[in-house]
Amino acid sequence: MKDFWSMGGYGLYVWGSYAVCAAVMLLEPWLARQRQRRALQAAARPIDEEI
Question: Any idea where the domains of the chain sit in the sequence?
Fold first, then answer.
């Protein structure tokens, strides 16, 4: 089992890569939802026509 986790000496790189990938996959939908909310709020605001 120890060999599985150490991955021939590359375990830190491999598991670190998995952790970063998982974090990005969890973070991106949350950030996209925030961007969508901001865009919808901006679209709902009245437009100033003082030009």
Answer: 19-44
